[in-house]
Write a structure and sequence with these properties.
By secondary structure, the protein is of the alpha/beta class. The protein is 41% helix and 18% strand. It has one domain (9-198): Rossmann fold, CATH 3.40.50.620. Belongs to the eukaryotic NMN adenylyltransferase family.
Length: 234
Amino acid sequence: MFPVDESKIPLVLVACGSFSPITYLHLRMFEMAKDQIEEEGKYELLGGYFSPVNDKYGKKGLASAVHRVHMCEEAVEKTSDWIMVDSWEATNPTYQRTAVVLDHFNQCLNGSEGGGVLLSNGQVKTIRIMLLAGGDLIESFGVPDCWVVKDLHHILGVYGCVVVERTGTDVYNFLLSHDVLNQYRKNVRVVKQLIHNDISSTKIRLFIKRGMSIKYLLPNEVIDYITQHKLYLD
């Protein structure tokens, strides 16, 4: 694979989460991040991945990994030529921490034979991997016992993070107040929402349970899948 601009750093974004179900906000996060990355001009964005969490995460309202992976695939198949779905985390026999998931992507993209990006001079350039996250996930970094501290150092120090602000979150203030985030602030890029969107999977599940319409909140293919498999009715 040859990059379009060899002077830039090749970049892949990875979004870890429940995606139960995936919504237009999840998709928009990638597009908003892409706009800012292209405007900065430092990176060449090669692709993005949804990595649905493992069933053993045990979060309330979590549909099975098989369903969540399929819904993510339905969401991107006809709508994006650069966003993909990776099922390694979801289908693993055990729960995998976010730091381990990013290591998995690093191994797949850079560690194996043929990894990295081949330049025209024959040299190989390492692909930068960054976590794509909403402001709510970043604020969870400050919740006691929610994250292993060494994992935060690994995620932010080795990979870095692109944070999309969400309604009601003050990412800049949190970056300043959180010791680990502040330490690696140069590895954190904040993307402002110019059009505020507060669609949440929790609200979608509630709408479905109450028999309310979810049209125009998520792709039709995902709505059809939810209807076909009778998800989120309980």
